[in-house]
Design goal:
single chain, mainly alpha, three-stranded parallel beta sheet, 5 helices, 3 strands, 50% helix, 8% strand, globular
Amino acid sequence: ANWETMNEVATAAGVTLGVWAENISDLYDTVKNLEAKGNKNLVLDVTGKTAKETLANAVNVRRTALKQEDRTFGYPSIVNLDAIASGDLQTRTPSSEALASHLICFRAEMI
């Protein structure tokens, strides 16, 4: 995990750091570590291996932040649609747009 190095780079440049991990548990731990280092300028990449996992991740992150009042997951989230949609950018089907709309409606702030 290169979070420490990326944290130094992002902090020095004064930019937002995108945070991604293999699973939600690791994402939570990484955000906790970054917060402990003083970085609260974060955006969480909740992209999973599938659209279903991505939606579940987005919902779980928001639910943890709101219902459990856990600020660790209180940052904006982002989804890498390219990683979970089929086809390349020129041949995307309308379902790609539908997936993006669905994710925005159900907890992903940025696509």
